[in-house]
Specification:
This protein folds into two domains: 204 residues, Glycogen Phosphorylase B (Rossmann fold, 3-Layer(aba) Sandwich), CATH 3.40.50.2000; 178 residues, 3-Layer(aba) Sandwich (Rossmann fold). The C terminus is likely disordered. Helix 11 crosses helix 14 and helix 15 packs across helix 16. The radius of gyration is 22 Å and the shape is elongated. The strands form two sheets. Strands 3-2-1-4-5-6-7 form a seven-stranded parallel beta sheet, sandwiched between helices. The protein has a six-stranded parallel beta sheet with strand order 10-9-8-11-12-13, with helices on both faces. It contains 16 helices and 13 strands. The two termini are 29 Å apart. The chain is 44% helix and 16% strand.
């Protein structure tokens, strides 16, 4: 379809996550950056209370937000009817579905087609886990029928090709982005963090930020830190985030005898100054897509140690702009931490190289431009001339 001059395109951004995380940040940046002169944007979010504040923030920016429950069973006829009626009333030109988990909301695209929505774009944010045969069939059907499929990194794209038979030429990579901070804006709070933890060259401040869940690999990190303590090296680890594993992790730190070296901070409203204060940022994840916290750390030129999973190696070049370790490898992680502890100048050089890369190629404006180009392709519209910051999306699309 083609829009007439002056007519805005109705776009629904749908996200089925049930807590605020990286996918919600992508939806936020896209919703607030798409041109209001070109697009009439509406956001669909789960009705769970955990997203109330996020929904209110979007509404505060003048965006329309609907709270729509995920249809997660073929027996949920009432939910299917409600979703179908909503789409029939809205009649968007395009539905853009962002999947947090591989099995999330696989009926939405089918319902959109039944409601007469002409174009559907699906974005996958994480490397898939195993599915039941019925779930795999639903996902395969969704991906085959979508007008466009995008992934946040080449690793996610590869799983769609390998596990679901999507043609690689149909999957476009639009990587995540990062906010490029002004150093002065965070400097004062960053100094406060360092003073709070008495950070110094001989007692570095390291940060791990993310949900306290199995995926993030905190247990592996604690074991590596215990090994480092045995080697006689001092440090402080700041743990930013909350989740179901907080109590078990606190107990594990006590069992390892390093509870005084670990500071569990809970969820922070703004983790940026803590990242800026850190001597290194750690990502010991067991699986990932393209984690935003890694991009945010590198944007601040912080040295990073990360597991070699998902899209992380597409961003981190080992020994150049960060240090990669195999997932679940306690010894390798401990050795990397010791290297950063003893070779602070080398770690700092990696941090500066990472900062240059992210600030050049991985901006939120590049993400918005990349998705706008996908929309134009799907809608059959002439693509606008790329603006500054688009290189990151083009770079990812070539992978």
């Amino acid at each position: 379809m083609r829009n007439t001059p002056g007519e805005r395109l109705k776009v629904v951004l749908a996200e089925s996550g049930r807590s605020v995380g990286g996918t919600e940040r992508v939806v936020w940046e896209l919703a607030t950056r798409l041109s209001p002169q070109r697009f009439d944007v509406r956001v669909w979010l789960s009705p769970v209370p955990e997203l109330d504040e996020f929904a209110a923030a979007l509404q505060g920016r003048g965006l329309a937000v609907d709270r729509v429950a995920e249809v997660d069973s073929r027996w949920d006829w009432r939910g299917m009817l409600d979703t179908w009626l909503r789409l029939r009333r809205l009649r968007p030109a395009l539905l853009h579905v962002h999947h947090v988990w591989p099995a999330a909301d696989r009926y939405l695209c089918m319902l959109a087609r039944a409601a007469g929505v002409p174009h559907v774009v699906v974005t996958e944010h994480i490397v898939g886990q195993s599915h039941s045969p019925s779930q795999r069939a639903l996902k395969r059907d969704e991906l085959v029928r979508a007008d466009a499929v995008t992934a946040v990194c080449g690793a996610v794209a590869d799983t769609l090709v390998r596990d679901y038979g999507v043609g690689r030429d149909r999957v476009r990579v639009v990587p995540n982005g990062a906010e490029v901070p002004g150093e002065e804006a965070e400097a004062a709070v960053a100094r406060e963090w360092r003073e709070r933890f008495h950070a110094s060259l001989i007692r570095p401040l390291w940060t791990v930020a993310g949900r306290l869940e199995e995926q993030k690999g905190h247990a592996v990190l604690l074991d590596a830190l215990a090994e480092l303590w045995k080697r006689g090296l001092d440090y402080t680890l700041a743990v930013a985030g909350d989740g179901s594993l907080r109590a078990p992790l606190e107990q594990r730190a006590r069992e390892l005898g390093i509870e005084k070296k670990i500071r569990f901070l809970g969820a922070l409203d703004d983790v940026g100054p803590l990242l800026a204060a850190s001597d290194a940022v750690l990502l010991p994840s067991l699986w990932e897509g393209l984690p935003l916290i890694l991009l945010e750390a590198m944007a601040r030129s912080r040295p990073v140690i990360a597991s070699e999973v998902g899209g992380v190696p597409e961003l981190v070049e080992h020994g150049v702009n960060g240090h990669l370790v195999p997932p679940r490898d306690v010894a390798a992680l401990a050795d990397a931490l010791e290297l950063f502890h003893r070779k602070t100048d080398r770690a700092a050089r990696m941090g500066r190289a990472g900062g240059e890369l992210v600030r050049r190629d991985y901006t939120w404006q590049a993400v918005s431009n990349g998705f706008e180009a996908v929309y134009d392709d799907v809608l059959g519209l002439a693509t606008f001339t790329p603006s500054d910051g688009r290189e990151g999306a083009r770079r990812g699309a070539r992978r």
